[in-house]
């Protein structure tokens, strides 16, 4: 994908507004009126005169492509007209922060029809509402400022707009895919930089600093999520957050980190040997997880039931763990009893977009079936969606030991063989995959074969 060329254009905000309008009208035939959204407001840190770190509301960004704070947008569904409201110049603020974006600059930068200042929002809403008969204002609960009024609109709907945007966000257009591809490209450089330094690092925090520095130097100032730099047994903690442990005498590093590019995420995981050579046990587990990932990716295309792909990952994990002797007995019984969940407790992946765990997945966290309880996407995959494929096998005492004490599961686990694998910690491999009509496209370019990773580590 030539993402740099694609990204020279504008973020397709009006196309998104049309998609949202079509969804609303599929639920409310002949719906008429205005979509209303607000950006995040500037907020000062408690007991401080500095603002909190800013993160744009994704609902607002989807209809504007605008990352500015303290803004509003209205989209006239009938005229297909989008008006963006940006803060006016505040002379007191200019002294400290410089000139803000002007209305003319915003009009040239964003895919909107008109740009006004926020001082005009109520007057504009009143005029638009009075000009329409039997019109509805659509907004999101708890995302409307107290000073904003909808008095001239006959109806107010605070229930469907959020749903409409969440559903619309699942299928990405070319520009959105280019944003995710760009985030992946930046992240690839950062992952390789860590591979080159891991053999010489003393502490996890050194590697986090290398990753962040590489992303920032390439224009990605924000991360899609708090990165995971987990060495040794800490890799068995799925969302390890400390990133500050010494690495001496540990086998592997699990690196789960991805840059964000203009509000669009990447989400990439690699696991590799700290000293440049996998131990026997680590290599055995890595080979199983890589097979899980490659076969699951090969099964992807439009209309595939994600539940089935997740089930496939478990079947491959069971076969691999049986071959190593960690599991024993009949593989169908192991699957039926869900014993493999002890080693692969999370879902195979999730939708990816403006959020790392993107909208539209319809998870069922109350599912009594432990194999599917944490699956973040349920149902079939549409073409144009982006999903992560991130199988893993983990050796977490907290999770596995209750299985060892439960006769239902313990008869399928050989504790003496398991003892050799605790120091492996956990292995996860994660790529970002675009679903197509006939298959899929992998946006993640970070190396993942054992040979490639070991070569980079040992050449540094």
TrEMBL record:
<keyword id="KW-0482">Metalloprotease</keyword>
<keyword id="KW-0479">Metal-binding</keyword>
<dbReference type="Pfam" id="PF05195">
    <property type="entry name" value="AMP_N"/>
</dbReference>
<dbReference type="Pfam" id="PF00557">
    <property type="entry name" value="Peptidase_M24"/>
</dbReference>
<comment type="similarity">
    <text>Belongs to the peptidase M24B family.</text>
</comment>
<keyword id="KW-0645">Protease</keyword>
<dbReference type="InterPro" id="IPR029149">
    <property type="entry name" value="Creatin/AminoP/Spt16_N"/>
</dbReference>
<dbReference type="InterPro" id="IPR036005">
    <property type="entry name" value="Creatinase/aminopeptidase-like"/>
</dbReference>
<comment type="function">
    <text>Catalyzes the removal of a penultimate prolyl residue from the N-termini of peptides.</text>
</comment>
<dbReference type="GO" id="GO:0030145">
    <property type="term" value="F:manganese ion binding"/>
</dbReference>
<dbReference type="GO" id="GO:0070006">
    <property type="term" value="F:metalloaminopeptidase activity"/>
</dbReference>
<keyword id="KW-0464">Manganese</keyword>
<protein>
    <recommendedName>
        <fullName>Xaa-Pro aminopeptidase</fullName>
        <ecNumber>3.4.11.9</ecNumber>
    </recommendedName>
</protein>
<dbReference type="InterPro" id="IPR052433">
    <property type="entry name" value="X-Pro_dipept-like"/>
</dbReference>
<keyword id="KW-0031">Aminopeptidase</keyword>
<keyword id="KW-0378">Hydrolase</keyword>
<dbReference type="GO" id="GO:0006508">
    <property type="term" value="P:proteolysis"/>
</dbReference>
<dbReference type="InterPro" id="IPR000994">
    <property type="entry name" value="Pept_M24"/>
</dbReference>
<feature type="domain" description="Aminopeptidase P N-terminal">
    <location>
        <begin position="11"/>
        <end position="146"/>
    </location>
</feature>
<dbReference type="InterPro" id="IPR007865">
    <property type="entry name" value="Aminopep_P_N"/>
</dbReference>
């Amino acid at each position: 994908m030539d993402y740099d060329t694609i990204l020279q254009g504008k973020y397709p905000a009006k196309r998104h507004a049309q998609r949202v309008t079509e969804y609303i009208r599929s639920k409310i035939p002949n719906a008429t009126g205005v979509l209303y959204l607000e950006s995040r407001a500037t907020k000062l840190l408690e007991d401080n005169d500095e603002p909190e770190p800013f993160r744009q509301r994704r609902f607002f960004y989807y209809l504007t492509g605008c990352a500015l704070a303290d803004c509003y947008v209205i989209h006239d569904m009938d005229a297909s007209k989008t008006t963006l409201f940006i803060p006016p110049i505040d002379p007191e603020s200019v002294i400290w922060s410089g000139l803000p974006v002007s209305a003319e600059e915003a009009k040239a930068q964003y895919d909107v029809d008109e740009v006004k200042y926020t001082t005009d929002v109520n007057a504009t809403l009143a005029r638009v509402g009075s000009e329409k008969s039997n019109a509805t204002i659509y907004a999101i609960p708890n995302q409307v400022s107290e000073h904003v009024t909808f008095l001239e609109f006959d109806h107010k709907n605070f229930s469907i707009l959020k749903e409409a945007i969440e559903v619309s966000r699942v299928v990405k257009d070319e520009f959105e895919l280019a944003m995710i591809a760009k985030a992946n490209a930046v992240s690839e450089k950062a992952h390789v930089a860590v591979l080159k330094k891991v053999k010489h690092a003393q502490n996890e925090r050194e590697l986090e600093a290398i990753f962040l520095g590489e992303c920032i130097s390439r224009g990605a100032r924000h991360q899609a999520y708090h990165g995971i730099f987990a060495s040794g047994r800490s890799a068995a903690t799925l969302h390890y957050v400390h990133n500050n442990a010494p690495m001496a005498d540990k086998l592997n590093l699990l690196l789960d980190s991805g840059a964000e590019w203009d509000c669009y995420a990447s989400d990439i995981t690699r696991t590799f040997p700290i000293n440049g050579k996998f131990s026997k046990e680590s290599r055995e587990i890595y080979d199983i997880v890589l097979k899980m990932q490659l076969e699951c990716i090969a099964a992807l295309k439009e209309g595939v039931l994600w539940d089935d792909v997740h089930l496939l990952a478990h079947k491959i994990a069971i076969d691999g763990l049986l071959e190593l002797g960690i599991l024993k007995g009949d593989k169908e019984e192991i699957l039926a009893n869900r014993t493999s969940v002890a080693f692969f407790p999370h879902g195979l992946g999730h939708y990816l977009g403006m959020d790392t765990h993107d909208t539209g997945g319809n998870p069922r966290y109350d599912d009594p079936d432990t194999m599917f309880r944490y699956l973040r996407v349920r149902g079939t995959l549409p073409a144009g969606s982006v999903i992560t494929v991130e199988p893993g096998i983990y050796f977490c005492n907290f999770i596995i030991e209750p299985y060892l004490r439960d006769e239902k599961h313990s008869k399928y686990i050989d504790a003496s063989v398991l003892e050799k694998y605790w120091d492996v910690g956990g292995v996860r491999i994660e790529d970002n995959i675009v679903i197509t009509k006939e298959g899929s496209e992998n946006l993640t370019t970070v190396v993942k074969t054992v040979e490639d990773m070991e070569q980079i580590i040992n050449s540094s």
